[in-house]
From TrEMBL:
Lineage: Eukaryota, Viridiplantae, Streptophyta, Embryophyta, Tracheophyta
Pfam families: Pro_isomerase
Domain (PPIase cyclophilin-type) ranges: 163-313
InterPro entries in UniProt: Cyclophilin-like_dom_sf, Cyclophilin-type_PPIase_dom
A molecular function GO annotation: peptidyl-prolyl cis-trans isomerase activity
Chain ranges passing through the membrane: 12-37
Protein name: PPIase cyclophilin-type domain-containing protein
Keywords, in A-Z order: Membrane, Transmembrane, Transmembrane helix
Transcription regulation recorded as keyword: no
Source organism: Amborella trichopoda
Length: 338
């Protein structure tokens, strides 16, 4: 025999309908964004050297590391006498030694967080100082499954700066290893090549009449096209590319550098895009003084194209990119404030 529907059950259906509408709207937004950023040459990518990501997810307080990775280097805190219950705490301890205007006393950390595998080493937090934080000393093992450690990098002021060299000037980026460790690990691999053959910018769209010079959206104006961005690829010849996992995905701000999907295609945003939500992994930010170079590129001659019903602007002449890393003391004073 059927049971009489209670009042609460009767009220449940409108809630379920609203939930369904919300989920459908979110799905449509994601699909629209995916189409808007469809790369001209879709490709697959992975970074198989390292394991999964461990740690927090908020970009403001990121403290992420990579499992099955052991960074070497001189210790500034010995883990045998310095222990925590989580990798976050180990990372935060390193960050506390990398604040203020002085040089970082700690720029890498190594933590053992698996009770079964770590045994008496469980909780050990080793704080270390890499000689070159853009070329960290990695303990390489043929079988990464044997690595019991989780490691991460921390970049202080003036550290972790790379340049995207173009014929129109160099766009300096501050990398975010505590928020996007897999992404930064891939960039570090590119830097080792001393070239970036195949890396280029192929799409450029200015702010139009929709965003002001500070990247703020102008009321009642459309949200694109144009979409206020420059887009390219960081897939270099000679590098095996697989998929970078989703990492910290904050709201896109003017100067944000983020992957499209799992890479290798990326974009630099010329505006604040709260309407895009938390979809894209942000792995760096452009130094404010260099946004004028990105703006200049966005004004270069383009041709119109349509990617699945979305109008985009493709550069008539794609711009080749070279990657360069910078030592803290060799970069001018503007970067030291980042």
């Amino acid at each position: 025999m059927g049971r009489k529907q209670s009042e609460s059950e009767g009220n449940r259906w409108p809630c379920l309908v609203l939930l369904g509408i919300t989920l459908l709207s979110s799905t449509l937004v994601y699909i629209a964004l995916s189409v808007a950023f469809q790369p001209r040459s879709p490709s697959i990518m992975s970074f198989s050297q390292f394991g999964s990501v461990e740690g927090g997810i908020g970009v403001g307080d990121c403290c992420r590391g990579i499992e099955q990775l052991e960074l070497w280097g001189p210790a500034v805190k010995w883990g045998s006498d310095f222990k925590f219950n989580s990798s976050d705490k180990c990372c935060e301890a390193c960050k506390s030694m990398c604040s203020g205007d002085g040089p970082c006393l700690c720029n890498s950390w190594v933590f053992c967080g698996d009770k079964d595998r770590c045994e008496n080493k469980f909780g050990e937090c080793w704080l270390k100082k890499q000689k070159d934080p853009l070329s960290p000393d990695v303990q390489a093992l043929e079988d990464k499954e044997k690595v019991i450690w989780t490691s991460g990098l921390v970049y202080g002021k003036g550290e972790g700066i790379i340049g995207l060299e173009t014929q129109h000037g160099t766009i300096h980026l501050k990398l975010l290893p505590d928020c996007a460790p897999h992404s930064v690990a891939y960039i570090i691999e590119l830097l080792k090549l001393h070239h970036c053959a195949g890396c280029h910018i192929y799409r450029a769209e200015g702010r139009g009449n929709s965003w002001d010079s500070e990247g703020n959206h102008i009321m009642e104006s459309p949200l694109g096209p144009p979409f206020a961005l420059i887009q390219g690829t960081l897939e270099a010849q000679g590098v095996t590319f697989k998929g970078i996992p989703a990492e910290a995905c904050p709201s896109i701000r003017r100067g944000s550098v983020a992957w499209i999907g799992s890479g290798p295609d990326f974009f630099i945003s010329l505006a604040n895009h709260e309407e895009w939500g938390s979809v894209y992994t942000v792995f760096g930010s452009v130094l404010p003084e260099d946004m004028e170079i990105a703006e200049k590129i966005a004004q270069l001659p383009t041709t119109s194209d349509v990617w699945k019903n979305i109008q985009v602007s493709v550069l008539e002449n794609p711009i080749s990119l070279k990657l360069k890393k910078y030592e803290v003391m060799s970069l001018d004073i503007r970067a030291k404030g980042s």
